[in-house]
Amino acid sequence: MRTKMLCAALAGIGIVGLLSGCGGLGEKKPEITLTLKTPVYALDSLADGTEKDMYGFLMQAGEAFAEQYKDADITVKVVQFENNKEMDEVTGCYGTENAVDVLSSGFFNMSSYIYDGTVVPLDDIITDAIRSDIPDTYWESGQVEGRTYMMPFLSSMNTLCYNKKLMRAAGLDSYISDRDEIQSWTEEEWEEVLSTLKEKLPDTVYPMMMYAGDRNGDMHIMTFFRSKGSSFYDENMRFHLNTKEGIAAMEMLRGWKEAGYFPPNCDSMVMMDNFDLFVNDQLVFYVSNPALYAVFRDSGLDELGYVNFPSLDGSGYCTDNLIGFTVFDNGDEDRLAAAKAFVKYVYETDWLDYSTGGITCSRRVAEKYREQAEARGMTKYVENTSHSVNYTGNNPNWNGVREVFYPHIQDLLYGEMDLREIAEEIDEDCNAAIEAGYENTVLHP
Q: Which of 49, 57, 180, 375 has most Cβ atoms within 10 angstroms of its Cβ?
C-alpha cells in the first residue's frame, strides 16, 4: 500500500520516472548508438528523386526508425566509405566504438564476414510475408547451411556500356543498336570495333577500360577471363585458369594492351581513373549497371549503348551483384535487437521502395513501380539475366581472394612474365585464400 501511494504522489510532481519498481513506469530505456555503414553507392530510386545514394537513404530510414522504436533511445550514425576501404570499416573496427551494426553492401563482400562468426542469422525477423515477397533464388544467395545471413535488397547487373558519340566518330554506326537492349558481339566483331576505334580516334581517346591499381572492379577483369571459353572454376569451385582457355584469355588481354586499346599505365590505374576518362569522352567502353544510371545522366552521358562482356560463342557474359544488409553482433544485446529491428522495419514499410535504385528484389515493389522501371530501361537488365555468371563461386573469404588476385593482373599488364606462370600463381594464391576461408570458418551460434 505504501508503494502504491508513493508512486501516486511522485507521479503528481513528475518524478516517478526516476524510480524503478513502480509498475515498470520507472524503467529507463537504454541509450544506443546504432551504426549503419555503406560504401559509396549510387541509388537513384524511383521512390524519391531527392536522394541519390545509399548514404542518403540510410540517413532517412534510420531517423524514421529511431523515432518509432520503443525499446531504446537511439542515435543513428551513418558512415559512408570508399569502396576500397570496406575491410578497414568492417573488420578493422571490430571491438571499437565505431563497429558496424548494420552493413549495406554487395553480397560478394559481405559473405566473408559471415564466416568469421560476427554476422548473425536473420531468420527470426523474416516473416512469411517478407519471405514470400522475395524470390527463392535471392534468399539462397544469402544463406549458409540453411540459415539466412544476408537480406536481399536489390540486384545490380554489370555489363559494358559504350559512348555512342565516339562510336559514330569512328564510323561504327552499324554496331550501335537503336533499341534499349544489351547487345552481344562475336570475337571478330569485338576485334573490328576495338581496332577501328584505335585507328580512327585521337591518341588521347582509348577504346577499352582496364585497371589493376587495387582490387576494386576485379570482378570485371575476372569476367574477361572467361572470354575464350574458360569455366573459371573447376567442379569444386576452385580457381582453374591454368588451362588452354584461361591462358588464351590472358593472351587476348595482353594483346589488347600492346595494341593500345587500354589507357597507358593501366596496370597502376584504378577503376575511378577509368570513370574519369569515360565521362570526359576519353574512353569508349566502361562498366555499367542500373545504379549508374543517374551518375552517367548527371555527367552529361545521355547517349550510351550497352553490351555484354565477350564470350567464345558470341552470346556474351554479365554478372549479377546482389546488394543487401547484414547485422553484426558487437556483444550488446540492446544494440543487436535494434539493428535487427531496423532491417525488419525497412522490409515492412515503404522504405523498401528505395530498392528501385536497381533491380528490386521485392515482387511487391517491382509491380508497384513497373511502368516507371520500364521507362528508365530496367527491362533490358531483366531480359539479360540468362547471360549472368557466378564470379564468386560462393566461396568463403572472398575478400582474401580479392587481395591476392589483382597483383597478378598487374603482372599480366606489365607484359614481362610468362602467361602460364601467371595462371599457375593465380590458381595457387586464390585457392589458398579459399582453403583458408574454409579452415577458419566460424558461424555465429
A: 57
